[in-house]
Amino acid sequence: MCLEKKNGGLGFRDLEKFNQALLAKQGWRLLMNFDSLCIRFLLCGSIILMVISYRLVWDLDHLMLGGVFFWSDTVGKRTSSRCWIREDINVWMDKWLFDEVPKAPLRKPVLFNLDLWVCDLICPQTKTWDMEKLQENFFAADIKLILKQKPAMGEKDAYEWVHNRWGAYTVKSGYWLACSLDQSEVRKEALARPSLNELRSKVWKVNTAPKIRIFLWKALSNALSVTDELIARGMKVDSRCQRCGFSSESINHILFSCPAARLLWAQIGFPFPPRGFENQSLLENFAYLLEIKSNKELPDALTRIFPWVLWMLLKNKNAFEFEGKEYAVEATVEKIKDDARQWFEVHLPMVNNEETCRRRNSKVQWKAPSAGILKCNVGVAWTKSTKLAGAAWFVRDSRGVVQLHSRRAFSGIDSLVEAKHLALVWAIKSMAFHKINKVFFEVEAPDLVGAITRPRAWPAFRGYGAEILEVLQRLGE
């Protein structure tokens, strides 16, 4: 039940892991705000508070086993260790590189400096990694990992959460990591192959009501109250099907092979598999239903209706056994079509072609700046295969008249964020060159904006944010 839906489970939260992820969130806040009033109160309080505070950080460290690493951005500046956070990163002793799991780099030279710090690998003039020192001390694989990290000049060393894009811990990513690190026998058995988990996971993608999705999952998990399952669990009941008198009543029987079920499938006009529903197993029938939506030759109104057919078969079976009611197949078909139509009208509203075209053709309007102020729009294009990026900027006044513009290319760019960063820095430097200091910059880069305005919430991009702020400060001067 606690297995993720994508792995074929019901998606319930494991309370122990979820509570640990929640507690680790408090530990993360303490680590990222070491000068806060809360942590000073905890450290200067009673023994009980001290135990609680250390427990928070212990849980964070325990949860982040294999999930967090230190990164250094200090040049020529070493501060003393402070409680749980070391602000100096030793190259050979600390696990400051991340390649699936945190690790220390391999030692290339036979004789090496044991007191080599990460800050010693950064060139103070260029404020980037010193390639000569990197090639002297590390292998090519580790150099590639080092170059992915952007040094932030003048900033203190801090933690970075590597299991999401922005580098800040979240309860969701912490819970995911806790589940990934779970090596219990129960979880290993649930994830063992061959398994029905892949088929069960497709149930959660079916367009239908949530209660029907749960019903489909139960059907695939042999969790419906039919006589075969009740007998398997030790109950003494009549094993015959109460509607047709067949010797056994399985899930496959009531949903596919019972005469009442076959009549309903035929009456609704649903296409049968080549061998028929009655000659296939439950898993084969469900696999057929879950894959039929990919058949473009059949109308969508027909292929997407099967969840309501299965749901109505179970309801009619229960109504017959417990209430003694038998519904006409024509009325059942109309009920199924009506329920499906109403659900799709609410959850998947049909938009007319005119409205769709209007929305697709609509464009975001450019907003003019105030009088006396210019606006610089920065655009970036990046290709992953060639690692080439193109950038351009346009400067317009309050009337929308282009005053200046330029474009250039960048090579050897590993990511789109790096391309946007280089383009924005280039645009700011260009404004400084043209002595334009009253200007707005507009770029589609929420990562960089977050690193500038909220650096603690975007630690993965703190190096980019620090460099942009430094260039902006020069522009202001």
From TrEMBL:
Membrane recorded as keyword: yes
Domain RNase H type-1, chain residue ranges per copy: 377-455
Pfam families: RVT_3, zf-RVT
Ranges of residues in domain Reverse transcriptase zinc-binding: 197-265
Alphabetic keyword roster: Membrane, Transmembrane, Transmembrane helix
An MF annotation (GO) of this entry: RNA-DNA hybrid ribonuclease activity
Organism: Brassica oleracea
Listed transmembrane segments: 37-58
Name of the featured protein: Reverse transcriptase zinc-binding domain-containing protein
